[in-house]
Design a protein that fits this description.
Length: 152
Amino acid sequence: MTVSATDLSAGQYGVGRASLLYAVKRVELAVRAHLDELLRPFGITALQYTALTVLERHEGLPAAQLARDSFVTAQSMADMVRTLEKGGLIRRERNSRNRRELLIHLTDAGRQLLADVADQVAELEQRMVSSLSPEEAEDFRLALTRAWHALS
């Protein structure tokens, strides 16, 4: 399917220019739907995948920090941690510096799951930017990062 510049700038009802916020949300929802489909055979959701990738980059986080970095509420994270722990993808252990705090770590099974889906996730990302040149894709990444920083 070919998309014209007019199609790209049309609003939800084809009149006027779509807001940037609307465009970002459409991309987010499309990515999440594709990720959920891709991850379903592995028994996890896109939100759970996000949490696992956060732990892959930052090992040993408390649940509150993991929730913030994964873009979910503390309550949602509590439920997610129980599910991921039950599935053997993460483990919790007491923080040696603060015995009241539990730190969350990836298990070997969690690392293996991320390795098992890495190529498919990379293909999805490549599909998302397939109509962009490599330079445009990098500019897109930088623009999204700058937009996030502006709102953080």
